Amino acid sequence: MATTKVLFLLGIVLLTWSMIAESRDIGIGRSLLSDDEAMDDDVSSTLDSVGGAGSPDADPTSAGGGPDPATLATKFGATGAVDASGVKVFDVTKFGAVGDDKKDSVNAIRGAWIAACKGNAKAKVLIPKGTFRAGPILFAGPCTAPKPIIVEVQGTLKANTDLSLYTDPEWVTFENIDGLVVQGTGVFNGQGPVNWKYNDCKGKKSCAPLPANLRFFSVTNSVVKDITSLDSMYFHYHVHRCTNVTFTNIHITAPGNSPNTDGLHVSVSDRVNITNSVIATGDDCVSIGHSSTNIGVSGVTCGPGHGISIGSLGKRPDEASVSDITVRNCTFIKTTNGARIKTWIGTKPGEAKNIIYEHLIMQDVQNPVIIDQSYGGKKDRTPSTSVWKISNVHFRDIKGTTVSNLGVSLQCSSKNPCVGIEVTDVNLAFSGTSKEGPLASSCVNAKATFGGKLSPPAWSICVALALPSGQVPPTHTPFIFSITPLSLILFLSSPPHTLIHTHTLALIEPLVHSSIQ
Predict the structure, then answer these.
(1) What pTM did the predictor assign?
(2) In this structure, is the dihedral angle defined by the CA atoms of residues 273, 278, 281 and 283, taken in order, positive or negative?
(3) For residues 94 and 76, what is the distance between their CA atoms, to the nearest angstrom?
(4) Which residues contact 194 (CB under 8 A, 6 or more apart)?
(5) What is the CA radius of gyration of the chain?
(6) What is the C-alpha to C-alpha distance for residues 337 and 402, in angstroms, rounded to an integer?
(7) Which of 22, 275, 282, 418 could form a disulfide with 258 if both were Cys (CB 3.0 to 4.6 A apart)?
(8) What whole-number distance in Å separates Cα of residue 480 and Cα of residue 482?
(9) How far apart are CA 174 and CA 296, in angstroms?
(10) Angle at 16 between CA 10 and CA 19, to 5 degrees
(11) CB 120 within 8 A of CB 145
């Protein structure tokens, strides 16, 4: 009985210490992101919930002068030349487009698309060399032409910078198309620097985001390859409600300080692959949003940017779970984050599961490995209240350098702790200033196994979590780790290279929990 009282008092003391330490902002259980960065996803979640420019009420002739696109399609639809492969080529200049960097050619481009899409022969829309200015452009299906229908960009498309022309948040939209190929060495220039100053939706409940460069909505069995997206006003690519679409050898470029210029954002989609591409932008290089499954990212070079992220998740109550995501063979260069999972606090439950980050190279990355379930928290960094469950996540073979002293940060939910987290062969060297070292790891509410060569070592902060009664972790196997102020003190007071006995934690921790109920 006396022992129980002593342990109870010890629990109260340590609980008090924990509260004081947290008030001093020691960095445990708080979001590692700025409020501005969290706000970035506020608008992106709005984009994920809307249909897009290609809705039935959309007016494809709302921008640009000249004849109606349908009239152009009827007039010139039979004039397409047939190339060596038997594909009928609809050159936009034959429909009135002028590559002089002056005339708005939107209706000519739309006319060429309608003629190609609604025909009965294999078809290609060609945008030849030159600089073509065009307001909002809608490539809408379904098409009657045999699959695939091709859009080839050899020149440069320049966005119209007059925001009054954009009734929906996108510049170029491909919608309701099965069997699409977008290809060519051309450029989609969003002319973002003209309008980035109007990226002012922070804190506003009703605010229209700036137009994304390219939006793919309800596109299936398609390929996008070799093209460049430059200086988007907002997202470069927004992929929504798509199935079996591959993006390969694409180039995305914007300054590192450009606002909300996510490279490629995926939501409500299945079997989307991003391969062998270079992304340098001002936000996430790739962000995988809610209701997405079977997403693959490989061979991507990211930087500058905010890394390759799953999330943010849980901003809106209607968001479904995310599963089966693989990110491998990617390189991160001076990015804010590397491999990241982020969920909003205080939202409807959801789940992110079956996630693999492996064979990654970090070059002077700020947060190489991070789970953040305090995303969107207040400035005082109140403890996480996210109820999303994160499970079966694997961080494997991650090497390189970090400018932060926190190489691995697993900040999970106190209401729904992370389970099945694997950290194996994460080998990072500290490349920041000496005052920020030494390199460490941090775990909160995470059940994780650690193995292979680890730097920072998992045990620098992560300590043993009690197993169910009667179970003792075997020797020389990965341990299950978590952190609480109590278990940290017990670990530091234990003899070197020993593990806290399971029955000790099982006895003491319930006393602490009972004291705060």
Answers:
(1) 0.80
(2) positive
(3) 7
(4) 161
(5) 26
(6) 10
(7) 282
(8) 7
(9) 21
(10) 145
(11) yes
Tokens of 259: 């606002």
Whether the Cβ atoms of residue 337 and residue 367 lie closer than 8 Å to each other: yes
Q: Which of 238, 240, 306, 503 is catalytic?
A: 306
The answer to whether 180 and 146 are in contact (CB under 8 A) is no
- 306 has catalytic annotation: yes
Tokens 């209607």 belong to which residue?
Answer: 318
Q: Select from 277, 327, 335 the least CA-distant residue to 301.
A: 277
Beta bridge partners of 426: 398
Report which of 322, 325, 350, 351 is spatially closest to residue 339, judged by C-alpha positions.
Answer: 325
Which positions ≥6 away from 129 have C-beta within 8 Å? 99, 154, 155
Q: How far apart are CA 310 and CA 418, in angstroms?
A: 15
pLDDT (tens digit, 0 to 9) for every residue of the chain, 517 residues total?
555 544 444 444 444 444 334 333 333 232 334 434 444 454 455 556 544 443 333 333 334 445 676 676 666 655 678 887 889 999 999 999 999 999 999 999 999 999 999 999 999 999 999 999 999 999 999 999 999 999 999 999 999 999 999 988 899 999 999 999 999 999 999 999 999 999 877 666 666 789 999 999 999 999 999 999 999 999 999 999 999 999 999 999 999 999 999 999 999 999 999 999 999 999 999 999 999 999 999 999 999 999 999 999 988 888 999 999 999 999 999 999 999 999 988 778 899 999 999 999 999 999 999 999 988 765 544 555 688 999 999 999 999 999 998 999 999 998 899 999 999 999 999 998 776 667 888 888 999 999 999 998 865 444 444 333 333 333 333 333 334 444 444 344 433 333 332 222 222 233 222 222 2
